[in-house]
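Lab notebook, bench 4. Still working through the backlog of constructs that have no structural model yet. Next entry is a single chain of 347 residues. Request: give me the structure tokens for it.
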Amino acid sequence: MSVDTTLQKLIKIDSVTGDEILILDFIEEFLSKNNFSGEIIRNDGGIIAIPKNSSQKIALVGHVDTVPVSKTQKIEFDDTDTIPGRGSVDMKGGISLILHSLVEENQDIVGVFYTAEEGPYEKNGLGELMPIILGNKNLEFSIILEPTNCQIELGCLGTLNANIKLKGIAAHSARPWVGDNPIYKIGDISKKVSENEITLLDIEGLEFKQVLSITTVSSGIANNVIPDEALLNINFRFSPEMSNDDAHNFINNMFSEFGEIEITSSSEGAMPNLDNPNVKNFISSTSLSPNPKQAWTDIARFYSNGIPSVNFGPGDPLLAHTADEHVSKKQLLESYELLMNYLRGVQ
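Model written out:
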């Protein structure tokens, strides 16, 4: 079975976050049918596949879940190079590469297939698999097969969400002067966010963009009532050089004058690790130029545990989660060949 055929089979399996049993069954069945020799560990977090006699130096890592299928999901394209469907980019293309690596070039690898990446951080399947992964004392390097357009992306930004509660005084909308409308205070926050929306960062020679955004706003109980409260969410994609405490202090210092702040979630990023020998070797093997990862990925979990990593996989990340999500068959095969060349050359 070819890499592209396997991907098409994976796409046909519904695996929305929380409903990954069938795709995990497929992974086990695929390995069994293709003479995989080794250990398969399966729990609620997903599957770890350890080939027999593997040095276990390199983890190939991918999540098996997807966001829900759009009602307008495009499932057919005119050209034969296109593989469409939910998950084709994010990230069943990467899962297909891991499966074929496990049965074709497996002397140094461990395959990691985890659940619930698209959901809340605390329910991410890697949380349950990580102790098993870290129990492998030979592990030196991980490749996260998130879509990168067949490019190398290093590190990742941290991510934080904070609620800002703006207090006001309720009143009848016919007599607004009796109350204090908190919605009007949002303008001051919007101005501050706009002024600090993008901060360019040079980290190990790579240009990251630290980003502030207002992502949700809610207020009011009726059309004729001045509300007594407004709530908005600040999403902060912060420098990998920042700790969670640094990010919390940044948000508190910037917005505490406006209202009560509640940090609802926060996850640190990962440094690029450009000087690490394993990262250097992967760059040299593929002859690709490294780029910064302008997002958060589970590379951060590996970084926090001292395991250098790269993001590398097929698919345009700008197409992830869209109604016309699709991946190029040519790029899928190119990604696989680059991965195989690297694994064959591992010393």
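Notes after review: The domain at 158-267 is CATH 3.30.70.360 (Alpha-Beta Plaits). The first helix runs from residue 3 to 11. Flag for follow-up if needed.
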